[in-house]
Amino acid sequence: SKVQIPPKNDLSSTIFTIFTFKYFTPLCPPDIVRLSWSKSIMWPPGWRSALRHCIAGWVRSVRPQKENLFLHVNDGSSLQSLQVVASSELNHRLLTFGSAVEISGSLVTSPSRKQDVELQADQIDVVGECNPVDFPFKIKEKHGLEYIRQFPHLRCKTNVFSSLLRIRSEATTAIQQYFKEKGFIQVHTPVLTSNDCEGAGELFQVEPAGQDKNQDEEGHQHFFSVPAYLTVSGQLHLEVMAGAFPGVYTFGPTFRAENSQSRRHLAEFYMVEAEISFTQSLEDLMKVMEDLFRSTTEHLLSQCPEDVALYHKHVSPGYRVRHQKISQMITYTEAINILNSSSKKFAFKTDWGSDLQTEHEKYLVKHCGDVPLFVTDYPYALKPFYTRDNQDQPLHTAAAVDLLVPGVGEMCGGSLREERLDLLKTRLAQAGLDETYRW
């Protein structure tokens, strides 16, 4: 059979329709269009009603009546579920909360104000059973995060975690898109490495479980003849690549052996790192940091409005995004003066030379208007060996910068790299790293 596509003047809609039929219709019978329902509702009403649709997802609610059966089905593409209306004859004992279904019918404009469209079903197939008695999540019950975490294999079915995963997916897309548009080359840096870029010793050491093991004088087993660790940063690998490309970045898993149960200190997380050649000042780095933050935020607000709204309302109320406000910039010395002039009592000391803690960062952001805030020129002793020396005695600061944002504190940091070989060698020797980085 041949599906007739109504004429449309809008070229983009025509192209989208051709793409849809080419790649999606082979999955279903010839007269059925199979799409996520969030994509289906983007079709013009006349087109929706002219075709039969097949929706696959999981039942969120079942409401049988004398003549009609009402279902809410969610396919993971959106926070919202699709209302399905069917004859009561299609009801089935396996049609329960949590069951997986495939439903075919017509996607039409809904007479109810609660939703724009609904699926008038003529076929319902239960492809995966779910016993509502044993299922840990119940209809219309609110479950706390601590309870949800007891079921890591099922928590993606909850609104809070499904929204988080959609937001994370879109954030990944936005980050990759930003660097691609700016001409950066993506580099996959090693997960197993002998480097400790941060120099803090918070490393997971990796040792082989097999029999072929090399042992050092102290009896340690080294598969690579040297100690190997899960990466804490891909920075040093990127610095090498920056000798051939003007801009490189990596986006992958990072590991820190910090004995902490807080949300700010995870054993494993994903981190974006970039290196830029031919920079002239910290402003070059700050421009990239701010642009990346703004473009990613704008992408999320446009692509995930319902998911972001869920977190604003229920998970982190009060932390509205203020990405459109102009960022401010202060030096570390100015930040210390602001903290010391405050009447607020801090848990951590605010002496010059002390590292800024989360409580300090959040206070500074509020003090400066609750907008993104750059803090520059940290004490040289606080920064790793590769950070450029400002040579501004007696303060002696480094060309480093952190971006602080409302509700979070530090979001990202960076520094100019020390390009003067004599100063770099001196710093390595002082840190006892000259042999480690002799290459």
TrEMBL record:
GO biological process per UniProt: asparaginyl-tRNA aminoacylation
PROSITE patterns: AA_TRNA_LIGASE_II
Pfam families found in the cross-reference section: tRNA-synt_2, tRNA_anti-codon
MF terms in GO: asparagine-tRNA ligase activity; ATP binding; nucleic acid binding
All residue ranges annotated as the Aminoacyl-transfer RNA synthetases class-II family profile domain in the record: 165-405
Gene3D superfamilies: Bira Bifunctional Protein, Domain 2, Nucleic acid-binding proteins
Enzyme class: ligase
Transmembrane segments: none
Domain of life: Eukaryota
Keywords: Aminoacyl-tRNA synthetase, ATP-binding, Ligase, Nucleotide-binding, Protein biosynthesis
Any one cellular-component term (Gene Ontology): mitochondrion
Documented EC number(s): 6.1.1.22
NCBIfam families for this protein: asnS (TIGR00457)
The family this protein is said to belong to: Belongs to the class-II aminoacyl-tRNA synthetase family.
Entry protein name: asparagine--tRNA ligase
Organism expressing this protein natively: Oncorhynchus kisutch (Coho salmon)
